[in-house]
Amino acid sequence: MENFIAFLTEYKTYVNIVIGIFIFFVIYSLKNKISDFVLNITGKILFSKKPELNEAFKSSLKRPLSTFLIVCGLFIGIYLNYKHKMIVDTFKIITIMIFCSGILNYVSNNISLIFNLKNGDSEVNEVAIKFFSNLLKVIVVCIAVVMVISELGYNINGLLTGLGVGGLAISLAAQDTLKNLVSGFVIIFDKPFGAGDFIETKDFKGTVEDITMRSTRIRKLDDSIIVVPNSTLSDSLITNYARLTRKLVEFKIGLVYSTPESALKNCEKEIFEYLDKHEMVDSNTIRVCFAEYEESAINLQIRCYIDTTQIEVYFKFIEELNFEIKRIIEHNNTDFAYPTRSIYLEKN
Questions:
Q1: Could you tell me the CA-to-CA distances from 145 to 133, 157, 171, 255, 281 in Å, in that order?
Q2: How far is residue 77 from each of residues 22, 27, 29, 203, measured CA to CA in Å?
Q3: CA of 289: how far to CAs of 99, 253, 258, 282, 327, in Å?
Q4: 203 vs 309: CA distance, rounded Å
Q5: Which of 50-54, 57-61, 105-109, 162-166 has the highest mean pLDDT?
Q6: Angle ∠(79,83,86) on CA atoms, nearest 5
Q7: For residue 199, how many other CB atoms are within 10 A of its CB?
Q8: What is the largest CA-CA distance in the chain?
Q9: pLDDT over 70 (residue 174)
């Protein structure tokens, strides 16, 4: 035993070299198995209920983790034989770079999957995903650069102060752009409307053709295209006709004042019966009533819901209903009213 200890003491340098090489080759040989083990345990803890994210997590981080293990083996082998601050600092810097590389790899490969699962929609806007992915990459790279500069021994307080002042100046100069970007996120992820939806605001009606991070492209009823800033849309009251489950039919018809009461009631009854028998009409929503007196007409109000959201079907129903109302009015020997004025001349 004493001879063995004496041998280790005499040849300590060579023994350390052998141990270092041995540790490096052991870690190098087992790097894939160690990576799989660590990622499997971590993935089960973080994504136990989301297998898609678990697989994406493991596939994205396996290579960076394997590289980190190789660097760890190399660091241990070198540090056993050459204990110097430069070795430790170099290891820290390389570790930072590998760690940031892993985050960038994960973001690049899986940002769309994360947003799709969270949003419950497999068609989340690609522009938003690309923008958010690039933003995260810039943030990660900036953090990595700051950490590396700090490890090299430079004072980063001045740099951080300058970045803060510069960021404030940029944000003040680009308030409208930033507001539109934030509004773009709200529109894309909250989804008050989507591409292809017909919407209405107080200023226009039209079909949404495209949504970007800064603006929304809308085709108006006259077939012209308008580009609306997202901040304007997010501050507006929006009616989205594409989200309707049924359409409202509501209008008034005016009959002449000479219409007898019996004819008026017959008109109400026959219009109601026609609507009640129609397969598209929700019977529980039918309202046909003598609504009001106007200057030149007795008004009947007609109101119901029909089971369609297609504009062509809606207008076809309205046309059929109008023809039927005309037939009913004529059948009951009355007529539609129109504005009239009686003039009386006094004799002198």
A1: 18, 14, 22, 80, 66
A2: 8, 11, 15, 71
A3: 73, 11, 18, 17, 18
A4: 23
A5: 57-61
A6: 95
A7: 22
A8: 151
A9: no
Residues 189-193: contacts with CB under 8 Å, at least 24 apart? 189/115, 189/119, 189/124, 189/128, 191/121, 192/238, 192/240, 193/238, 193/240, 193/242
Q: Nearest CA to 122 among 196, 194, 38, 213?
A: 194
Position 170, amino acid: I
pLDDT at 116: 56
Beta strand segments in the chain, E: 198-200, 205-211, 215-220, 225-229, 239-240, 247-255, 287-293, 298-306
pLDDT for 3 equals 57
Structure tokens at 43: 């993935």
Q: Which residue do the tokens 């940029």 mark?
A: 170
- What is the residue type of 83? K
Please provide the average confidence, as pLDDT, over all residues in the chain: 79
CA-wise closest residue to 212 among 176, 251, 185, 249: 185
Amino acid present at 91: F
Distance CA(25)–CA(32), nearest Å, equals 13
* 184: CB partners within 8 A, 6+ apart: 128, 211, 212, 213, 214, 215, 230
Task: Return d(Cα 202, Cα 222) in angstroms, integer.
Answer: 17
Query: For 213-266, how does the pLDDT look when each residue is reduced to its tens digit (9 = 90+)?
Result: 778 889 988 889 998 888 888 888 888 887 888 889 999 999 999 899 999 999
Identify the pLDDT of residue 117.
46
